[in-house]
Design goal:
Elements lengths: L7 H4 L12 H11 L6 E4 L6 H11 L4 E5 L5 H10 L8 E5 L6 H12 L4 E6 L3 H4 L2 H5 L2 E4 L5 H14 L1 H5 L3 E2 L1 H10 L4 H14 L4 E2 L19 H16 L2 H13 L4 H16 L5 H16 L5 H13 L5 H16 L14 H6 L12 H6 L20 H18 L11
Parallel strand pairs: 1-4, 1-5, 2-3, 3-4, 6-7
Helix pairs in contact: 2-3, 8-10, 8-11, 10-11, 12-13, 12-14, 12-16, 13-16, 14-15, 14-16, 15-16
Length: 428
C-alpha cells in the first residue's frame, strides 16, 4: 500500500447523509442541520459507530464555519480563538470537540458560556456515558444523539461498499468470499473502523485472487470491546447480576464469560458475587456466601486461567440457589429506623457492670443469662428503651428461610402473648 494513503476507514468515510448506515437518529439530526436547524449536540457511542463520520458530514455542509478541537490537546483558549476568527461569518462557528469527556470539570464549566450564549454550535463526541462524563449544566444545553454499535449486517454492507468504491482496493484485483466477508464483519464487534482496517490488512497481506476464510488465520484476533472504567464495564456486571438474580444459568455464565474474555478484573467480579450471595440469596441458602468467599480464595490461590473455573462454578451455584432478599431489606429497614429514631439508650439490664459504681446504679440488674434460662432470656426486650418493636427481618419461604420463619414466628408470638414455650419476665 502506498505510504501516502490514509487508512481505508478514512478514505471511505461517508460524505453524504444517505451514506451513513445504521444510525437513523444521527441521520435525522444531519437532515435538520442541512435545513439550517443548528443546535449543540453530543454524539455518544462506542468506537467505530460513526461519530467522526457524522462530524465530517457536518463539515461538508458548513465548510467555512467548521472547526475541530481535540480534547486531549486543545482547550478553552482554542475555542476563544475560533469565536474570534469566525465572528465575521454569517453562520455561527460549529466546533467539533472529539473525546469531549476528556475535558475536566473546570474546562467544561469554561466551555458552558459559549454554548449557553449561542456563540458556538457545539458538536461533541464521546464514548463515555454523558450522564457521568459531562457536567449537568453543559449536558442540559445539548441534545444527546445516541449512536449504537453497528450490527454485523451493516458492517458487511460498509465493507462491500469499500471493495466497490475505493480506488486502491480495486487496483489490487482481489475478491473475498461471502463467508470470509461475513467473518470479518462479525469479528469487528460493532466497530466499522476496525472492520475496515482489518479488511485492508487482509487484502494487502494475502496474495490471492480470491481470499477464503481459511486464509484469515492469525489476522482476525481482536479483543472484545470493554472499558473497565466506563459504562460498558457497569452494563456487563449489571446484566450478570440480574441474570443470576433471576436464576437464568445460561445468561449468567454468558455474561460472566463476556467479562472474563474481555479482560475484566476477576476480583471485581468476585466481589459482585459475594454481594449477590448476601443480597439476593441471603439466608435462603447461607452456603452461597461461603461458596462465593471460597471462590475468591481459590482464584487468589490458583490464579488465571485455571482459577477461573471457580468463578463459573460459583455463578452456576448462585443462579440455581433459592433466592431471598430478606436480609437486604432488613438492612434497609434498620438504616431507616436508626435515621428516624436517633440514639435511644441501652436498657440498664443489657449493660455490662464491671465496677461497683455501675452495679449500684443498676447496670446489669435483671439480666437473664440465656444459657441458664433460654425462655426467660428471650422474654427480655433487647431493643433500646422506648423504641417500639418492629419486625425488621422478615424471612421468605424459600430454602433455609422457611425454617427460620417458623422459628421466628413462634418466638414473636410468645413474646407478644407471653404464652407458648417462653414465659414472661418475672416482676421486679
Amino acid at each position: 500500500m502506498p505510504k501516502q494513503l490514509p487508512p481505508l476507514a478514512f478514505r471511505v468515510r461517508p460524505v453524504r447523509i444517505d451514506d451513513l448506515l445504521g444510525q437513523d437518529e444521527a441521520k435525522a439530526m444531519l437532515r435538520d442541520f442541512a435545513r439550517g436547524n443548528l443546535r449543540s449536540v453530543l454524539l455518544w457511542g462506542p468506537p467505530g459507530s460513526g461519530k467522526t463520520s457524522v462530524a465530517s458530514i457536518v463539515e461538508r455542509l458548513y465548510p467555512d464555519s467548521f472547526f475541530t478541537i481535540h480534547a486531549v490537546t486543545g482547550g478553552v483558549q482554542e475555542i476563544r480563538k475560533v469565536t474570534g476568527r469566525a465572528s465575521q461569518s454569517e453562520t455561527k462557528p460549529i466546533v467539533f470537540i472529539d473525546e469531549i469527556h476528556r475535558f475536566n470539570r473546570v474546562q467544561q464549566d469554561a466551555l458552558l458560556p459559549f454554548v449557553e450564549s449561542g456563540a458556538i454550535i457545539l458538536v461533541g463526541a464521546t464514548t463515555e456515558n454523558p450522564s457521568f462524563a459531562i457536567t449537568s449544566p453543559l449536558l442540559s444545553r445539548n441534545q444527546v444523539i445516541v449512536l449504537k454499535a453497528l450490527s454485523a449486517a451493516v458492517i458487511e454492507d460498509i465493507l462491500r461498499r469499500a471493495l466497490a468504491e475505493d480506488a486502491f482496493i480495486i487496483s489490487l484485483h482481489r475478491t473475498m468470499s461471502d463467508t470470509c466477508l461475513a467473518a470479518v464483519a462479525r469479528s469487528a464487534d460493532g466497530d466499522a473502523r476496525a472492520a475496515l482496517n482489518l479488511l485492508e490488512l487482509i487484502l494487502t497481506n494475502i496474495d490471492k485472487e480470491t481470499i477464503e476464510l481459511d486464509d484469515l488465520k492469525g489476522l482476525m484476533e481482536r479483543p472484545l470491546y470493554h472499558d473497565r472504567s466506563g459504562e460498558n464495564h457497569y452494563d456487563l456486571i449489571s446484566a450478570f447480576h440480574k441474570s443470576v438474580r433471576a436464576g437464568d444459568v445460561e445468561a449468567s455464565i454468558y455474561w460472566l464469560g463476556r467479562m472474563l474474555e474481555a479482560g475484566e478484573d476477576r476480583l471485581f467480579v468476585l466481589r459482585r458475587m459475594i454481594r449477590i450471595a448476601s443480597e439476593d440469596v441471603g439466608m435462603a441458602d447461607p452456603n452461597a456466601l461461603r461458596m462465593a468467599v471460597s471462590a475468591k480464595e481459590a482464584f487468589t490461590f490458583v490464579g488465571s486461567p485455571e482459577g477461573e473455573i471457580a468463578l463459573y462454578e460459583t455463578a452456576i451455584y448462585l443462579a440455581c440457589a433459592p433466592k431471598s432478599n430478606a436480609v437486604y431489606l432488613a438492612e434497609k429497614r434498620v438504616q431507616k429506623l436508626i435515621q428516624t429514631t436517633g440514639s435511644p439508650g441501652v436498657p440498664l439490664y443489657l449493660r455490662n457492670a464491671p465496677t461497683r459504681l455501675m452495679r449500684e446504679i443498676g447496670y446489669g440488674e435483671g439480666y437473664i443469662y440465656a444459657h441458664d434460662d433460654p425462655d426467660g432470656a428471650l422474654s427480655l426486650d433487647y431493643m433500646p428503651e422506648g423504641l417500639p418493636r418492629t419486625e425488621l427481618y422478615r424471612p421468605g419461604i424459600a430454602g433455609v428461610e422457611k425454617r427460620i420463619r417458623e422459628i421466628l414466628d413462634a418466638r414473636r408470638k410468645a413474646k407478644r402473648t407471653g404464652s407458648g414455650t417462653y414465659r414472661k419476665t418475672p416482676k421486679q
